[in-house]
Design goal:
The protein has 10 helices and 14 strands. The protein is of the alpha/beta class. It has 2 domains: 169 residues, Rossmann fold, CATH 3.40.50; 132 residues, Hypothetical Protein, Haloacid Dehalogenase-like Hydrolase, Chain: A, domain 2, CATH 3.30.1240. Strand 13, helix 9 and strand 14 form a beta-alpha-beta unit.
């Protein structure tokens, strides 16, 4: 397979040639905005030939509108590493999936913990109804309006019942069923990612212990009461390493930014891992540096402070 033409523009080994960045909680705030300062930092490194890659639990069709409108993104790693896309052509370059039978077995293993499951397919995201209730419990427990709730509640419910300000938020509706298992049996498409919410943090931690030992999947405790599960061998980190090899960019010339448990896999797969804020102890434990949180434009702050590592403008 021939290298992508963008390799010719990457300033390697003279400077950092490849940046991977998570979206929600890292650069995309409250399901509504990416700061102008962040885009200015991205423009500055792109002018130096650096390749920019979003690496998210989202699928490509849920790319944040501000990022899509900016138009400077080169690649998109979706569903926690399951799908790697060339953004300009829309081509899927690297893909893995969970077979339906394996998905049903994963759900069975946590059945006694009363999980609420979501299944992410290429063409649809389907969720169980009780995920609605669990996110409400988590918002009440923490006292923090959870941006993830924007995908599960109507704008009216968020504002009137849970007192969450949704002005300017990118609200999208996800179809739901009472029980996801029959849908998986009938749909029979391969699943890019499973996600589950639980009624308590204790139940979530127990589920993570059970799932992380399974050889057929990769499990990540992202935060609070949520776990995400993808196909074995496909994580943000492994797909980032795969893309760097494809582009001919040495690992030591790559960096990654993240804020949650599903960013831990970057460790050892990139030259430097920067945690954005300290809300995930698991991520902070393996990160090379900790940048300010998203509220303080942590990604932009780090890039501005290290712009000399990106080489001269082309």
């Amino acid at each position: 397979m021939s290298p992508h033409s963008v390799t010719e523009r990457a300033r390697c080994p003279e400077g950092i040639g490849l940046i991977f960045f998570d979206l929600d909680g890292t650069v995309y705030r409250d399901f509504s905005t990416i700061s102008e300062r962040t885009f200015a930092a991205f423009d500055a490194v792109k002018a130096r030939g650096t390749v920019l890659v979003a690496a998210s639990g989202r699928s490509l069709r849920f790319m944040p509108p501000p990022l899509e409108a900016w138009g400077g993104l080169d690649y998109f790693i979706g569903a926690n590493g399951v799908c790697t896309y060339d953004v300009r052509t829309g081509e899927c370059l690297h893909e893995g999936a969970i077979p339906p039978d394996a998905a049903l077995e994963i759900m069975r293993i946590t059945d006694d913990l009363d999980a609420a499951w979501l299944a992410f397919y290429d063409d649809i995201v389907m969720r169980e109804e009780k995920s609605h209730y669990y996110l409400a419990l988590e918002m009440r427990r923490t006292g923090i309006p959870d941006a993830r709730a924007y995908g599960f509640f109507s704008a009216e419910e968020l504002e009137e019942v849970y007192h969450v300000d949704v002005s300017g938020a990118n609200i999208f509706d996800l179809p739901m069923v009472e029980d996801l298992a029959p849908f998986i049996r009938e749909h029979q498409g391969s699943i890019h990612k499973l996600a589950a919410t639980f009624p308590s943090v204790a139940a979530t931690e127990e589920a993570f212990i059970r799932l992380k030992g399974l050889p057929i999947v990769e499990a990540a405790h992202t935060a609070g009461v949520e776990i995400e599960v993808s196909a074995a061998g496909f994580t943000k980190g492994s797909s980032s390493a795969w893309l760097a090899r494809r582009l001919g960019i040495p690992r030591e010339r790559t960096i990654a930014f993240g804020d949650a448990g599903n960013d831990v896999s970057f460790a050892g797969n990139v030259g430097k891992l920067i945690a954005v804020g300290d809300r995930s102890p698991a991520l902070v434990a393996v990160a090379d540096e900790v940048a300010p949180p998203i509220e303080e434009d942590g990604v932009a702050t780090w890039i501005e402070s290290h712009i000399d590592l990106f080489g001269a403008e082309l």
